[in-house]
Each structure stands twice: as C-alpha cells, then as structure tokens.
Amino acid sequence: MKVAALVGSFRKESYNMKLAKFIQERYKDRLDIQIIPIHDLAFYDQDVENEAPASVQRFKAAVGEADAFLIVTPEFNHSIPGVLKNALDWMSRGEREMANKAVFIAGATMGALGTVRAQMQLRQILNAPGMGANVLPGNEILIGGVQNKMDENGQLTDNQTAEFIDKVVDQFIPFAERQLEKTYS
Q1: Strands (E), 77-169
Q2: Is 132 helix (H, G, I), strand (E, B) or coil?
Q3: DSSP character for 149?
Q4: Using one digit for the tens of pLDDT, what is the confidence trace for 33-63?
Q5: Is 69:96 a contact under the CB 8 Å cutoff?
Q6: What is the sign, positive or negative, of the torsion defined by CA atoms of 41, 122, 167, 136?
Q7: For the chain, is the Cβ count within 10 Å smaller at the N or the C terminus?
Q8: DSSP code string of 49-63
Q9: Among candidates 120, 161, 167, which has minimal Cα distance to 144?
C-alpha cells in the first residue's frame, strides 16, 4: 500500500520528521511510505489553481499516487502549522487527492499534550467537504515529552510508545484496505 506522508515541520532537527521517518522504517515491510516535501509549495491562490505553479503540480502528482496518507503535525499556537494547512488547501481543490482515502495522524511535542489541539483541528479540516478524507477514528498518536522518548538518531527509545504505534498501524492497515475496496468496487 502506497502511503504519502506529509510532515508539518521541516526544521532541521524536527521531532515530527524524525517520527515520520521512524514510522516509515519500522513498517517498511507493510507500508510503502513516501515522505512528500511541502516546504517549497507556493501559497494557495484560487486565481491560479487551474494553472498551478510547478511546485504544486509536482506535489499533487506525488500525492495523487497514494492509496492512503500519514500526516505528522507539530502544534504551533494550538494549531497546525501554516505550511501544512497550505498543502491541504491545495489538495482540497481540483482532483481532491485525499477524497475517500484513509488517513492516520501522528504528532510529537516536547510539551505534555502531544499535539492534541493541532490534531483536533486537523481532523476538522480533513472532514471538510473539499477534503473528504476518512480519518482513522480513535487512534491518535500523541507523543508528549518526545525529547525523553526519542534518541538523537530519531529512534523511539520508549517501548510503550513504539508498541502503541504498532497497535495504531495494525488498526490502520485494514481500515485503509476497506477504503481501497470501496474506491475500486
């Protein structure tokens, strides 16, 4: 199953990018996860959406090949980062690449709440008519205090957290397969 991963942080030592890479590596025998860069996307502009800039065309072609999605978001001011919202806005128009596709969400923060507010907002966005994504219910990967659970190489050192992610992936795969069956039947 091809999974497009969008990461809302491109900071050099981003815990969220490290988390995406951890998930990509840990489940490589079960999921073909490709991390799709979003940092160079032009700002969404309805005036040019039908003749989108080259960066957007490349992005939409890459995500359009996905069977499912992983979104890893930090939390900035109780919200998702603007760069992630911009990518989602582009995906809500035209081909609507996320429509009827399965999505699972993750996030890591040094704070205690593990991106809970950003993930709540992200679920609202993904439920919007232009998005129409099918978000895995009740399986939030919220990693608080990530600096104490991940080493400098991006490996989770907290076994409980890694085992929880295993359970979420175990839930996500059949959920995504059911979405694919509906799409192609």
Answers
A1: 102-108, 134-135, 141-143
A2: coil
A3: T
A4: 999 999 999 999 999 999 999 999 999 999 9
A5: no
A6: negative
A7: C
A8: GGG--HHHHHHHHHH
A9: 161
pTM above 0.85, yes or no: yes
The SS3 assignment for 150 reads strand
Region 91-119: what's the mean pLDDT? 93
Q: Which two tokens stand for residue 25?
A: 């590596």
Neighbours of 185 (CB within 10 A): 5
Residues with Cβ within 8 Å of residue 12, at least 6 apart in sequence: none
Question: What is the rounded average pLDDT for all residues in the chain?
Answer: 95
The amino acid present at 123, given as its one-letter code, is R
Q: Which tokens go with 136?
A: 């895995």
Residue 35 phi/psi, 5-degree rounding, is: -85, 115
Alpha-helical runs (H) found in 92-158: 116-126
pLDDT surpasses 70 at 179: yes
For residue 184, pLDDT over 70 is answered with no
In DSSP terms, which residues pair with 108 in a beta bridge? Answer: 143
